[in-house]
């Protein structure tokens, strides 16, 4: 069971833009990592764009399950995990991250922010904390 990506996006007019993201691509071949990360960024934006405000959904994309939560205020979160990762845990993680993000980052920054300009550093910590360690 593995989490690969955790993203916070803003669903504004006319399109969705990425505010902050964390990735764990360490299980992929070194030469595949950047293209896998690009795929995850693109997929997160696409799923958030196609999901209505106030909705939660899980979408299968290749061998991944993408869990999206779009709040009524337009703030959205996407977790990309493997098929075995519990859906309930993904949605509770998204709830926690979006609540914390909305308290720490001004709504004004959602409209024009980008991963380089938004100062919210908790995503990497959440991504590693929620990894399920399998015994070897």
UniProtKB/TrEMBL annotation:
Q: How does it sit in the membrane?
A: Lipid-anchor
Print the keywords alphabetically: Lipoprotein, Membrane, Methylation, Palmitate, Prenylation, Protein transport, Transport
The segment(s) forming the Longin domain are 8-127
Pfam families in UniProt: Longin
Q: Give the GO terms filed under biological process for this record.
A: endoplasmic reticulum to Golgi vesicle-mediated transport; protein transport
Record's superkingdom?
Eukaryota
Compartments reported by the entry: Endomembrane system
GO MF terms, alphabetically ordered: SNAP receptor activity
Coiled coil residues, start to end: none
Keyword Membrane annotated: yes
Keyword Transport applies: yes
Q: Which PROSITE patterns match?
A: LONGIN
Membrane-spanning ranges = none
Q: Name one GO cellular component term.
A: Golgi apparatus
Entry's family note? Belongs to the synaptobrevin family.
Q: What PANTHER family does this protein map onto?
A: SYNAPTOBREVIN HOMOLOG YKT6
Protein's name in the database: YKT6B protein
**Record organism:** Helopsaltes ochotensis
